[in-house]
Specification:
P-loop_NTPase
Length: 193
């Protein structure tokens, strides 16, 4: 299913007109890895980040995830060792739509890495599902899914993708994915394939 130009316009208009309940509209990366003061805007519900290896795609995705309190910064920006100050003076600014906090206007928040820890005061909460993409490694080479692939599926749950995921991923990938499934390890629900 490919989105028509009219459907694409409708989705862009929803972002522009603040029709979403919660949405990250913009992030500003200051002194974060290779970014001095870079603004990244999200003008559509699905945004593809394309770039070279080491170009900052994962940094941008990690920064976006920090917009919500229940995402631990260490998931995306781990310290190498105790006393590691390589993240000192990192600052990530957010412009968010969050209707439960402010119905009529966007809110701004700033995450800072100061005195060896992240400061994210008054950040909103949101259920964020992070599905790690395993680069281009075939599923059969991922040890955490060997039991599932060998037929021992008792500790795994297979679910259909939700309709929005199918709709937007199909538009970005230009590939039909309605028959794809999500495999979840019951012992570690964050481990998905």
């Amino acid at each position: 299913m490919k989105l028509s130009p009219a459907e694409l316009k409708l989705e862009k208009d929803k972002v522009q007109d603040n029709k979403f309940n919660q949405y990250v509209k913009r992030i500003t990366l200051k002194n974060v890895r290779g970014f001095d003061e870079e603004i990244v805007e999200f003008k559509t519900p699905v945004t593809a980040l394309i770039g070279t290896n080491g170009g900052g795609k994962s940094t941008i995705l990690g920064a976006v995830a920090l917009a919500y309190k229940n995402v631990k910064p260490s998931k995306f920006f781990p310290k190498s060792f105790y006393g590691d100050d390589s993240m000192s003076d990192w600052e990530i600014g957010f412009e968010l739509i969050d209707k439960p906090i402010s119905k009529d206007k966007n809110i701004n928040r700033t995450a800072k890495f100061k005195q060896m820890k992240w400061r994210r005061d008054s950040f909103p909460e949101r259920n964020v599902v992070y599905v790690e993409i395993q680069r281009t490694v075939p599923a059969g080479e991922l040890t955490k899914f060997n039991k599932f692939l060998s037929g021992d599926s008792i500790q795994f749950e297979v679910k259909n993708l939700n309709p929005d995921t199918i709709k937007y991923c199909t538009a970005v990938l230009d590939k039909k994915i309605e028959d794809y499934k999500c495999v979840i390890n019951k012992n570690d629900p964050t481990s998905r394939m």
